[in-house]
Structures are given as C-alpha cells and as structure tokens.
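Table S5 (text form). Sequence records supplied for joint modeling of the two-component complex.
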Amino acid sequence: MDEIQPLTPDTRRKQYTPRGENGPGRRPQPLIRSAGIRFALGYGVVFVLAAFVLAFSLWHSTADVLQQQVEISIHDDATMLAEHDQIGGAQSVAAALQDRLANRQNTDGIYLLEDAAGNRMAGNLDQWPVGLTQMDTWYELPVRHGGEESVALLRAMQLPTGEKLLVGRDVRALIGLHDTLRDAMIGAASLIVLLGLLSTLLIRALFRRVIRDISTTTRAIAQGDLSRRVPRTGKGDEFDELAGVINDMLDRISRLMDGVRQVSNAIAHDLRTPITRARARLEDAAAHACSPDEVQNAIERATQDLDGIVRVFEALLRIAEIEAGARRAAFFAVDLSPMLRDMDELYQAVADERGLHLQTNIATTLPVFGDRDLVQQAVANLLDNALKFSTPGEVIRLFATLNRGMVEISVADRGPGIAEADRARATERFFRAETARNTEGSGLGLALVAAVAQLHNGTLELLDNKPGLWAVLRIPAQLSAA
Amino acid sequence: MRILVVEDDKDVAGFVVKGLREAGHAVEYADNGRDGLFLAASENFDAIILDRMLPGGIDGLRLLETLRAQDNATPVVFLSALTQVDDRVRGLKAGGDDYLTKPFAFAELLARVEALARRGKGDGPATRLTVGDLEMDLLSRSVRRGTQKIDLQPREFRLLEYLMRHAGQVVTRTMLLEGVWDYHFDPQTNVIDVHISRLRQKIDKPFDQPLLHTVRNAGYMLRAEEA
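The corresponding structure-token record, covering 709 residues in total, follows.
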C-alpha cells in the first residue's frame, strides 16, 4: 500500500484542505464516505418506508373499515328501534328487542332497555355497563352477556318517554382480528427491516465489487500500467457497458501513448543518425583535415545533414499542425483541377528525365472545400514516392476524377509496393517498409498525406497495383460551387 | 544597397550582417524593436530584414505595422522561428513582403532580399526584357536569342520570364517554386533542376555563350557575361 500513498484520501486531504475546514485533525468517516454504503442505506430506507406505507394502508383498509361497519350497523339498529319507540312506545321497543334476541343468528347484538328509574325492561345485559354515562357517544367497554366476559362497542340513547336504550355489538372477534393483524405486522416489519438490511449489504457488496474493479484498474493505469483493463462480466448490463466504455477509452489512450512513444523513439533514432553524421564530419575535419578544401567540404556536408534534420522537423511540425486541425480556418472553395494539371506538367519533365511514363487523366473540374496547398503537398508526396520507387520504363498514373460525391486522386506505380502486412502501418510517422529501407526518405510522406486526408474529412487508401502501390486520396467534393 | 537588419540573436545577426557586407551592401543593425523602428523610420533603406520576436516591447509585427502606418513602403523580409501557416499569413498581412523561417540558408536570404530591393526600385511595367543577346517580348510572348527564334512551352516561358526579371541575381529553387509554380514547400524530387536543364537546352545549348548559370549551394542566375 505504501506505493500508492499519494492517492489515499488522507494525504490528499492534507494537500487540499482549505483553511476554513477543521483540517488534518479530523478523522475520515469511512462509513458515510463510502458511496456504496450511502447508496445501499438509501435503498434500505426506501425499502422499509415502502413496506410501512403498505402495512399502514392494509391496516386501515381492514381494521378501520370493519370498525366503521360495526358502527354503521349499531347506528342503523338504534335508529330502527327509535322508530319502534315513536310508534308503540317503550313496550314496542322491548318487544322488538325480544324478537332480535330470539333470532339465533344475531349473536353479536347487545341490547339493554331500562326505564327512567333504572330498572331493566328488556335486553341481554344484566346491568347497565359501568362507565357508560353519556348519551349518544361511542364506548368500547367490557360487558358480560350470555355468561361470558366480552368487549362491546356501545352507544346509548334516551327515548322520549324517559327510558334509556343501549345498543351495541360484541367486538371480541374484531379485537382478536386487530391483535392478529398487529402481531402479523410487527412480525412482517421485523422481517422487512431484516430484508432491507440484507439487501443493503448485498447492494453494497455489488457496488463495491464493480467500483473496485474500475478503481483498481484506473489506479493501476494512473501508476503507469497501461495494459490493465476493467474485467467484463459479460452480462451486458449497465456495469458491463460502463466497463466496456472505460476499456475503449483506455485502448484509445494506450494507442495514442504508443503513437507518442513511437514518434519520440523514431525522432530519437531518425534525427540522431544525421546529427551523429554531421558531428562526426565536423570533429573529423577539426582533428584530421589537412587542407582548407577538406575543411570546407566537411562543413558543407555537415550543413546538408543539418538541412536534412530541419526538413524532418518541418515535416513533423506540419503533420502535427494539420492533425491539430488549425488549418481548417484557412479552408476555402477551390477547384483542384488546375493545380493538378500544373503538377502534371511539373512532374512530367522529371518522369521524362528518369525514363518513366507519367500518364495522367484529370477531370476538368474537381471542386472541394479545403486547403489547396495541403492537397498539393499531399499529391506531391505521392508522386515523389512513385518516382522514387519506379525504375526506368515503368508507368506512373495520376488520375483525378469525381466519383460519387468524392474527388478521387489516385497515384499508382509499378514499383515494389507495400506488403499487405505493412499497409496499415504505412501511414504512421517514420514507418518504413523493409523494401524501402535502402531508399532515401524520412518515412513521413504518407503520414502527411493521411493527415491531409483526415483534415478534409477524406480518406487515404493504399491498394495493391499488382505490382506496385496504388494510393487513392478521397476528399468530399463540393458540388454547389461557392 | 542599404539594408537594415533587426535581429536580437547576436550570432545570427552577426552572420547575416557579415554576409550582406561581403555581398557589397551597406548594413545597419539594431538588436531590439525600439532601435529598429527608430532607424527604419528615420533613414532610407532599400530593404529591411526583420525578426518576428524582438525584445524591448516592440516585436517585429508591431514595428512593421507602425512603419506601414507612416506610409513607409520599404520592402521587408520577415525572419522567424514561427513556422505555422497562421504566423506566416499574419506576417504578410501586417505588410511583410516575404517570410523566411529559421533556420535558413544565407544564400536564400540574400537572394530574396536582393530580389525584393530590386523590385522596390520599380522600373515600371516592361514589355520587353533583355539579357545579353536574349530578348523576350512580353506582348507577343516570343523569345529570341540573337537572330534565332526560340520556341518555349508556356511554363518554360514563365520560368524564363522570372529569371530574366531577376537577371544578375541569384534565384533559389524555392523562389522558382513559389514564383513560377505557386508551390509552397520543397518537394523531395529535383523538379526545378529538371525544368532548368530543359530550359537550358533551348536557350543555351545551341550557343557559345551560356547565360543560365548554376550558383553552387544557392540556385541559378541568368546573366550576360562571366563575372
């Protein structure tokens, strides 16, 4: 763990704690600092809350509704009995009560009718329940009826003739139901909390596993191990996708790093050689030259070497400038046709001199939106290459046509070409195929052509001319002349 | 010719000043923008060689802009380590007549400065160019040497015209690429040499006295007699 010291929260805190905070003395709070725990806790709380809301509504919709139904039934019963009283007085009420009590099905009903003096006239209660003092008020009291202790919901009313009527329902069963329901809910609640806790832990573990995979990978990469990748679960889920995206990013970074490393190696090698040569020449002349002519000669050759180095530098800078895209600002609508015909004329003489046949076919208009000078340089590089690798008597073709919305400039030679395996790498800076090792050149020509193609949203394709190289530079045509 | 060199690097400046003096020019030298501007504004020069980045608060671009604002049209060659196209464009927009990037060959600088200074003299639009017994009629686009008519391709005509306009001066390959072919970089192939040798076949080969000379490590020169 010592190696990763600079990355631990403690050291970071020391470096970045603002003055206002209470600083290095404060201990980190690992539980709350863990996003996994926070996430899982949040999940747990939501889970438990949801369960409680569900239980509450269940409670309400069963217990409360049952109680309300009892109350309604008592109320209705009382109203009907009051109607008996209006029609036939207390005697009629007593008769109605006898009727009801005689009905075996109605076992829950509790009734008591007392006269004004407090004597029992009818009903299944022996005496007025203790504690029931107010009329027209709901009471839940212990009663004794049918030889059993029970609990009842009761409501009393004063009849106009002075008698007191008590109507109620035995709610022992209802209370039992309440209790059962309550017990069940308490049990369920503990189970819910337990489940919530379990899933919290599960989520935290899952979270940590995924995050750990990513963080260990990225940390390893931050320390320079660019070969590390986030392990894929292969399930195709979000985490797998995230891992895939991160890996793609790492691949790209690693390719770029390789490119930079390769270029700096190549610079080191390709520039070291001419620098060494120039240095050797000068030192040799300083130590061994016997005549001013020899010194002069050595200095001239060394100057030429230095010029070569400058050319490589300029090509590299040019490619970097093109790749940075800065030159897009200088784009304008241009017809490449006259420029290409000038080049044809310029190179025709060179081809003639070398005993080569330069065949050209250039369309009359080749409108593009781009940088004329860059395209010119790209085509010149392709032609320079073709000339370099051709032997007398061979044919070089320069064709430029408008094809399916693209300006297609192709240069084909009959030289050694580029081996299939090398073709993909041929546009890398300083890449030189085995067959080209012995010819002069910096290995930057095709890299520049590729960069120019890319800048113009075009492509550079290297094909086999059987034998030879067939390079096709495609640039989107601008059909509406601006 | 009187030439002003404004360059802060002592080695580069010394090398340029020495070379120009050897080529027979009178040279003034300033190592910062302030002195350079003072000299350029107060004296007459045929050409100014100006470094882009200068100490002393006034850089090459500011110096030139100030100079041009005073209606001073002295030809200016920028000398700069800033090689990006933008830098070049800005230099030319500010009123520069030519732009040479460091490192440079002295022969290239000399050729360009002399070409500019000569152009600055402005001998009016010519219709006829003559070098020795070689004559070019720009109106009828015909060329003859002595009594013999010489047939040239259009491009060969332009090449010869460029050389004749700069007769007696060294013309570098880069100048020819830019001036005749509108080419702004050095191709790897010796394209210019090939075209020069073709031209030579036509204007020199049949005659005793060569007019088109190769200047070693520099370029070409068209001149009437051996110096």
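Note: Residues 106-121 of chain B form the longest helix (16 residues).
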